[in-house]
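3.2 Worked example (two chains)
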Amino acid sequence: MEICRFICVRSNQGLFPWGHVNRKLNASCRRWIQTKLPDKSLGDHHNFPKHVHKSDDLSLIRNIGIMAHIDAGKTTTTERMLFYSGFTRHLGDVDDGDTVMDYMEQERARGITITSAAITFTWKHHKINLIDTPGHVDFTFEVERSLRAIDGAVTILDASAGVEAQTLTVWRQADRYDVPRIIYLNKMDKPGASLDLCLMSIMEKLKVTPLLLQLPVGSEKHFQGIIDLVTMETCIWSKGNMGDGTEFKLSPIVQSADSSVWEKCIKARTSLIGQLADMDDGIADLVLKDVAVENIPVSDLLSALKRVTLARKGVPVLLGSSLKNKGVQHLLDGVNHYLPCPSDRHYPFAELYGEDLCALAFKITHEKQRGALIFLRLYSGSLKTGSSIYNVTRKTSEKVTRLLQVYADMHKDINHIHAGNIVCVTGLKQTVTGDLLTSSHTSYKKAVESYGKQNIDNLPGRSAESSSHDDQGDEEHEDNHFFSAQLTVPDPVFFCSIEPPSMAFQKDLDIALENLQREDNSLHVSVDKDTGQTILAGMGELHMEVIKERILKEYGIEVEMGPLQVAYKETITESSEVTERLDKTLGDRHHFVSMTLSVHPNQTGQDFKAVELRHSRENNLEAIRHHHLQAVNSGIKMGLCAGPILSFPVCGLGVYLHSLEIQPGTSMAMISACASQAVHKAVHSAAAVLLEPTMHLEITTDEDYLHFVMSDLAQRRSHIQGVEAREQVRVVKAITPLSEMMGYSTVLRSITSGTAFFSMELAQYEVMSLSEQNKVLQKLTGFLPS
């Protein structure tokens, strides 16, 4: 404690930089100093900003996300943004574990982002709500739900690698939500950094037109700055002020100063304007009027670039080196200039609510003191502390107890928030990720009426099965799920059993798993009906490892996890038709159902959505009531949850309903039970086979170790798709069964002396050969198939 008192005195005298102090203190010392210095924040080196823009001007708000492949520099770039905006006084470093955005203990220990973190800061009078997302494939759902809350995104590329595997994944996710993007080529100082390589990979892999707005000054370790083709200025960063990037020199490019630089810039600017002329009428008019390339106004270029970006006709490309503190200020300018404000994006469902509240719950976390923290994106209206709101998805009313402005893992109480912002609320007990919230049930009814019943099938979140067979008697059901986040939740690929150290901890474990599952939709918890074991299913080895650590750190339960197993699926190879009859009397009520179903292989491999009706003169399927059809669909889904081989889910099939007879008074549960039995029997007689998950694998290795890598892949049933030469390294692309990738990181380090690294993402489920299927059966059941 004497040391702590000394630090307090010295810090007040300005003799200790907080970033260096932070890493020298344990938790108890930090808490003690915090009580003595309430205006200091040792954990994150920042105070809450007092200059955050509070006006209702939506044009000055940016809701953005940072997304990229793992190790491309997302968190490092975000830390520089916070520093240059004045939010922090210390440049956080991922390697040192003192970043603001990676605040979880597991993140700082591993040096990776695990959960998306939100923060608010200002840059040149603009309020920026930023979400830093993970790059690891195991946590891709964090990117998915963050994309529903943002208006624009910054995609970061490693300048020495170009577009990598996970970059493609997050890019496709952003495409699903029509998110406008800009690209930031990071690590321009890295050996092997190539502007041409990156531009080529953007065109070939992302299938978009890159609009190069900057040229590098120097290359690789000699990278000094950038040439801005929009403003025709050179920006060179100095090494003064400890090299934190705050000092740089801007110089206008003039022909008389350096003719070679002038010609290079004019050539690049001409190419840029030519691209814009093909995409934007405003620039095309200037070109047709023969306005000289160097005389086209900066304001016209900025406006045209924003229009092109919002229309997703092209993607602005900026350069920099975040670790070396170069280019981030211009990236922030690009966020303000080119990415949309909330009013630039078109959200049809929000427009139905007019001035009433319309908000989307896109993320949930839990804290011991505050309970569940619900992250909301407000599309319209406003929200106040103590407000009562209506959950459209859950059809229930709840009350907001507190409004919190989010600063990574820290929060500041506020009283009011308006449309276009991101906020955290407490007090909502039933709301989960993807729920839509409004002011009241009356507001929701008004939104429905404003759209009109004739267009109800076009509303977001409307499922195919519910829109195909509506009737007037089911109006309440029609009003149930108009809107949802429509998040694509990936199927788990690994599962294992999880047990508490003793039965005394079972209830605490159930609570922990319930909270974690509410936070993370990609985490699945179930109970095996045969053994009674709790089964945990997730997206990968790292995902499951992090969940185990969180249960220990946050809930104090040292759980035991069984060996990881691959989550297979099952499908059918033949068609089959069955007739099932259920005739029972329970009490004084008689239940009778008879139906004929058939199952057929479906080449799409997708999960079952809804039964298809096969009309004929003999049946009367057109008279089926909507709630009866819903019961049939529900029963079929239950029947497909467990296949005949190893009780894995059944997919890749279509189900046809040929006849249905229901006696009046029969309950919906009996109809579902009959449908479940029918489809179960049909699948049993349709020659079922196992499907295994396969992964897109990308390995980067030195050429000296390429032979060892290829030999190892051959033993793992890999299909080599190609080997690319990238400067001094080789990139191997392959499709490999997930079951062969268990512990692969350790093997790869061993055979390449720790010089190679890899990334992978789910490719598809493929039919297993009979021999491999028999191996799985023997492994999981202990018996050889007959």
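3.2.1 Second chain
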Amino acid sequence: MAVVAEPARVGVREVERVSRRDGAMCRVDPGQFVCRALAAELADEWVLYCRARDLRGPDRPARAVRSFAEFADAWLAGRGLDPQLVRLTGGPADLTEIIYEWEQDLRRVHPYPSKRGYELASNLLALIEQRSVREQDLPHKLAARAQAPPLFGKPAEPPPLEEFSQAERLALRNAARHDIRAVERRLSAGRALLETGCDPRQGDWENVANLVWAVYRGLLETTVLRAHLPTSPGHWPTEIRQVAGDAGASWAPQALLAGLAAMVFPCELDLQPFRVLLLLAMDECTPEELLDLAVDDVEFTDGGVRLAQTKRRAGRIRRRLHTDTALGHGGDGAAFEGEGRWDVPGLLCRLFAVTDPVRHAYPDVVDWLWVAVEPSGTGRARVSGRRAEFVLAGRRLTDWITRQHRPDGNPLEITTPHDARRLRKTAKIGRVVALGGTVADLAGDDHHVEVFRRHYAHGTTAHVLAGRAVTTAQQKVFASLTRPVFADEEAVADLTEPEVTAALGLEGETAEAMRDGQLDMGLVNCRDPYASPHTPTGSVCHVAPAMCMLCRNAVVFPSHLPRLVLLAEHIEQIRNRLTPPQWQALWGRQAAALAQLFDECAASMPDARRAAQEGQARLDLPLGMRTEYDR
């Protein structure tokens, strides 16, 4: 067997991530694997793949390379083959068989409904296919496998996220406002304490104000605290123990450091309420656009604030003006002092006030809006400023929500998942409620119509509103088609007058025939028995009087009301003999039409009911109507 010389050097391949952390690199080191040559070839294809497709997130194909190379090492070692001789172009092993075994292992490690196995397999096959198309030097079997899909299909997409309900939106809003007030009070007290402190190296290390002064200037570490404070936290002054909380002796310095920093700096969890309120207030801003805001992207004007929103996925920058609602109600012009304003300009001004100490103390983050401090390290922990990302455990939206309580002290109950995208959907649905209109109008310039239809128009609120709109329109149409016309005593007396006949929608000859009783169908009058909506045109109506109350041709005189009272009583008697579904299907609409008619002519109903009780009217129903409909 020919021995292929090992490469003299295998370097680390790197691709820069396009993310909020400028300069963050994704790396693949072929030297970590025994099959270094194969891993290097795949890593080279990964670099070319990311460049050719301008990938903003190179991590997924990188994970595929690492996963396959690690599996290939174990697979080859288990069969006594030399991993260093394996190449894409050939070697002692069939790569197609290794890929097949790797996919089977992925299916076991990442069972349904996980997408990880499918993503890893499809990304590796894409890299191999790229090499096959470009160089055309791969074995035919491997090239054919690269063009085929993974062994297992892509899992179904999860159901779209639902928006928060109105009650949940109000609960989140109130909790966020409460937290912002608490943070502002805490930082205001900390600033007052800071002004009274001095350098503890020249003063007292057991004074809280001096320790706040030191942490604000980056002089404090846990090693410094251990060196200048008593070893046992029990011997610390009461004020310092209160800052440290109930942490044990081993963790007391870290807890004290975090507590001191919280007196003058916000942490990521303190910024979550600002994020919640801004996403609820700005339906045209995504969570990513909000988090990517730099200080230069925020421009305060006389009437509000203008934001330069960068949407990385779409590759565009949009500038939005958000007006100050307080100025529109007689404001005095002091729009951006950050006191008590809950609109977008007021919230951003208050956010600047909260985060300014971080930018002042840590120049590395001076350009960014969402900045916070967090203690870092363990044995030698210190406070550092950094951009907020809200992704680490303890700092996510769900962590903030689970800490909230209702006014009665019970935990705040918010449906899961606690995803910031649901806040945006809630704001978008609020826009739907306020504006209405077509999908194209509601999508605006934020989305394509299909994107809005698929991700936002599916919301329960939008569906309910759409259903109500459709139902209302249908009811109006049905009412115009089926509603009888009522003519009071005055109208009956002047029935042949042109104004009356026009108001009732009658012709002169029809009015005269109706006045003479020629069009009485046994229950009410009929405009035209040969133009019934329930029978073919030109044929005499054969469903009278069963459907008269659901016919647009029906005209009711006051003299008909006693018969209609008897019909209503007859329908109520039938209710006792039929099942509810049967009664509703056969008589429910007639009963509703009668009730509506009785409400409209309430002044005439007492006389009508009295006439019905005294037997002055008869209800003559056809035999078929009594048997067919009543059984």
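3.3 Remarks
The chain has five domains: 13-147, 166-262, 269-380, 421-475, 483-628.
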